[in-house]
Amino acid sequence: MFKEDKLKKVQEEKKKWIEDLSKILCETPERLARFSTVSDLEIKGLYTPEDTKDIDYSRDIGFPGVYPFTRGVQPSMYRGRLWTMRMFSGLGGPEETNKRFHYLLGHGETGLSIAFHYPTLMGYDSDSPMSRGEIGKCGVAIDTLKDMEILFEGIPLDKVTTSMTINPPASILLAMYIVVAEKQGVSRKEIGGTIQNDMLKEFVAQKTFMLPPKPSLRIIVDTIEYCNKEVPRWNTISISGYHIREAGATAVQELAFTLADGIAYVTAAMERGLNVDDFAPRLSFFFDSHIDFFEEIAKFRAARRMWSKIMRERFMAKNPRSWMLRFHTQTAGCSLTAQQPYNNVVRTAYEALSAVLGGTNSLHTNSLDETYAIPTEEAAAIALRTQQILAEETGVANTIDPLAGSYFVEALTHQIEEQAWEYIRKIDEMGGMVAAIERGYPQAEVADSAYKFQRQIDSGEKVVVGVNKYATDHPPIIIWRMKPEIEERQLRRLRDVKQTRNNQRVKELIDQIRMASKNEENLMPHLINAVREYASIQEICDVWRDVFGRYSDPGYF
Amino acid sequence: MSPKRKIRILIAKPGLDGHDRGAKIIARGFRDAGFEVIYTGLHQTPEQIVAAAIQEDVDAIGLSSLAGAHDYLFPRVIELLKEKGADDIIVFGGGIVPEEDLPALTQAGVKGIFTPGTSIEEAVSWVRKNIKPRK
After folding, report:
1. Residues A252 and A419: beta-carbon distance below 8 Å
2. Residue B97 lies inside a defined structural domain of this protein
3. Residue B18 belongs to a domain with what CATH number?
């Protein structure tokens, strides 16, 4: 970014600085032998124009809304519209969660995000023996359309967008959402939102898997194909690094594995014969914002630059919208501590600031009590207020990509990008992400990083305040508890639905899903028909488990 | 004399919870500490866990749960061990377990609970102190 002669002068001055510094360090050495990020990337004491000399502004940084989108995907970024404040919520049954949705919207939330309980995530109904002890505990219990109708009571689906963290049964939940909208008189063409629908990362992290990778991919491509024509405002996949990071990956691994998953989805959809520019603009991303401030900002910037190159150069996409990496961010759950839980408010605020300075398009901020349970209303409100303070008091949304041009941030962005390309090359050599997952490669990489980090905490090399340093007793906080009657109510409702629906019709529609699964017909229209008649999630997933087989955890450690 | 038998531990993930970072770190930490470790992998029913524990002839079962179902799943494992006459196998656990749940789990027979922030070393010393290889 600098002229030769200027750079030469900087180099001379730097030499002098190093000499002076060495003298000082002889007397007062630095605090640590090595400074590194939370991902253990070594960081130098000073960055200068020398570190950015190979960066070309127009080629590598450019302008917001313009390839390679390093500075953001929209030309006006937050000056035009703030990021969407989307709090991940789900607790007990649909009644409790509907109440929470209204509470958060009433407090200024701008988008919905559903957390489902484990049985729904795994394709089981509340009455399955697999669901014992799990109903409503880790999110909202949804068994049939009836539950979704209650969940969205009083929420007009043409006015709000909804993100659903759901994977193996993602297409079923989308079908239910379409029918809820239909019953509100809202056309599927008008609804907006996201299904996570990212099965590949499930084999690496989060681990709500059901079917083997290949049939999982087929169902995902069905949703892409259907939404292209029928639900044009829907984000068909949220290609997620969040869970990979939470499982212990480094920032570089999170970035690389997420983009490699994205490459696999684009490839699969193109193999189906879809035109890349028809579906790529509706792919979205989801990243973690961890505690290492600059590393995260650099990661977000590198992510946008890399994806635009992948789409334009590798997949030859022509539409600039196909080149844009739009992403949601969640602050890092794994950075929070059960000890001294109020410190979590501070951690979350810094992480949210990183995400905003990194140009996130939507954000969830964790609550201080999430190392214990699902957040209480009060804790969720503080987390939402954290975003509102950032957006409307601190002034950080006044200008676009304010850290661009920082020698450190630009150098780190470049370094993270280069290391992530290295992983992507390795995965390409293995035959792509599906093959890499089948041989356990990303799983092993993540487990190694997680173990190494734990050892660094245990040795005190990495500090966690209140845990391995400054540990003191702290009074207990009030946490959310599920009322036992919620479970009974959920089971009763499911029983009633199964008794009062047209069971003959449901059976026929389930059979049609079975046929379409075998015949490689697009499943979406069949799913919509079946859920409209109150077929349950498990009834459909059982068909898939039967037709496609199950995936079970190989249990590496 | 035959060499002293190593402590044998089954690390298990009961229920539908998919958070396995902690279980895998503990499994590896125990292995590095010289214990014999068998890891069940995810999504195991209490029945499957008890069957594996008996078949593998372990001294202890370490259960991991981060999704709030510990209050049902941990006692259920112990109940099944009793039914099979295998309640000499020690059960301990870890994960997201609120403090107020600890008395009920202890009452049910869970011998140790490790909550967030536990170091590998703390868990290893607890095992050395509380679990002896069975004959």
Report:
1. yes
2. yes
3. 3.40.50.280
